[in-house]
Amino acid sequence: NVFKKGLKKTKTALFRSFETVFSSVDKWDESTYRQLESALISADLGVSVTQKIIADIKESYSLGEIKTSEDIINIATTRINAILSSDNRPLNENPTGPTVLLMVGVNGAGKTTTTGKLAYKLKQDGKSVLLAACDTFRAAATEQLKHWGERIDVPVIAGKHGSDAAAIAYDACASAKAKDVDYLIIDTAGRQHTRQDLMQELPKILRVIRKNFPEAPHETILVVDGSTGTNALFQAREFGKACDVTSLAVTKLDGSGKGGVVVAIKDEHTFPIHFVGLGESPEDLQPFDPVLYAEAIFS
Ligand code: GDP
User: Fold this and answer.
1) How far apart are CA 235 and CA 190, in angstroms?
2) Which positions fall inside the SRP54-type proteins GTP-binding domain (predicted)?
């Protein structure tokens, strides 16, 4: 299970808390539930998921089904599994031309790195890929993406720092057509709600893409930094409102201890989680597997 290493800290913390609660109660009462609640909240599962798990535990307890801490773990795993397994679908593909993937997220979330890792993954699957460096706002982003391109041998369309992102998107679409690539992945600048110019840039990029490929983007992938825990949940909420997010990639879950946030996000949103980032190397982007993920949180 590839997620086990990344979720080790989350698992250890939860496991310990459950064991402590279980071994220290003589009488099972409201304070027991409060302790369980705080263990689940501190694993970044969020209020809503925590309440659902607590309700499940209460029901099982009333039926006399809870004998060991293992029983609590099984109840929580079942609920998490149900949340993670709903509304999943594979990444959309365009059968008649390039599949256009638009990467969005705040600065530092891991957009550029995920763009590189995703390109590598698609290439490994035998697809041809073109990258567009439309993050012209962050000084190093273009260089970073070019570097990824060299490293994984994938072409990158880029402009100079500060040049018009929509113009680069235009060039990238033309090149995607000329090269007849399977995938065009567009890295965009980190959204900042305080920067009107940046907020207006995305609609401009979208107009250019749609002029070339009317159905595009086939996915708008929101990249959030999982190691920020509930802040990632907040970002998903904000972006869900601001643009038409269709897919999610959660990064930096390697050893963060905040893996529960994936469940909190999934519980709140209907967009599928497609990828999980477990490191900085090309092969460290994992397709999201709900069953393995739920299992890794507890065992
Ligand atoms: P952007 O501003 O959203 O494009 O963010 P970057 O792609 O530049 O990523 C910010 C930092 O996070 C970089 O140092 C990346 O190497 C690092 N990073 C991105 N994804 C992961 C991940 O899954 N795990 C770890 N450990 N680091 C990551």
Assistant:
1) 12
2) 272-285
Q: Which amino acid is at 159?
A: G
Confidence of residue 22 (pLDDT cuts 50, 70, 90): confident
CA–CA separation, 252 and 20 (whole Å): 29
Ligand 1 mean position to 105 CA, how many Å? 12
Contact 162, 109 (CB under 8 A): no
Question: Has the ipTM of the complex gone over 0.95?
Answer: yes
Q: Is the pLDDT of residue 191 over 80?
A: no
From the list 71, 57, 188, the residue with the least C-alpha distance to 134 is 188
Mutate to test the pocket of ligand 1, among 142, 280, 288 (most ligand atoms within 8 A of CB): 280
C-alpha torsion sign, points 258, 263, 264, 265: positive
Mean pLDDT in residue range 137-161: 93
For residue 192, pLDDT beyond 70: no
Give the Å distance between the CA of 59 and the centre of ligand 1. 42
